[in-house]
Amino acid sequence: MAAIDEAVNEVAATSATPGGTVRLNLPRIAAELALSPLFVAFAEAFPKVTLDLTIDDGISDIVADGFDAGIRIGGRLVQDMAAVPLTPDIRNAVVGSPAYFGKRPAPQHPRDLLHHACLNYRWAKTHEVYRWRFEENGRALELSVDGGLVASDTGVLCDAALAGMGLACLPDLLVAPLVTSGRLVRVLEPYCPIQAGFFLYYPLNRHPSGALRAFIDFARAQAPIA
């Protein structure tokens, strides 16, 4: 079946309008918040191309797992991959609900988190728990924190923070509307470093199909970088 699909893509590459399937591996937050408009616009521009999205918050080997390309935050890209920036830089945000801060004082320094209930993210494939990353006077600071919940889904952690279970460290593009509305309160913002945004990446040593090439070129032209 894979050989048939590859042949279909090769034939489509020779036509005026590319067709076939582009298999993408990407995290949930990118699919739901950052890149949905890109996918919609591409589908309208290239109706003969099917975007086959696998939502995966872990670190996937796109070659071994049979994907054409992946989308990840820039700091988590692997070697031997071409990369196309898709979004501006992002920052993590430490947030909690007003109800939570009604019971505990807001942390003034990252080390104060050691005395708070912190909601942790765990990668499903490696079972590694994310270490909260900060920056102080230009130096990196990483902390392992504890709390009553560990989950491999950012949406679950966000809901738990809204419910007052504790503090969560989540991408700002996920929580910004909730902070603006007052449902979540952001703390430690001066210590949260800027990091590279989302990138589309694909193998350097593999000739992209016509469908993938169309998506790469479209993403490069359409995605907001500034």
UniProtKB/TrEMBL annotation:
Entry's Gene Ontology BP terms: DNA-templated transcription
Single GO term (MF): sequence-specific DNA binding
Signal peptide annotation: none
Domain called LysR substrate-binding: residue spans: 17-223
Source domain of life: Bacteria
Family label: Belongs to the LysR transcriptional regulatory family.
Protein name as annotated: Transcriptional regulator, LysR family
Organism (species): Granulibacter bethesdensis (strain ATCC BAA-1260 / CGDNIH1)
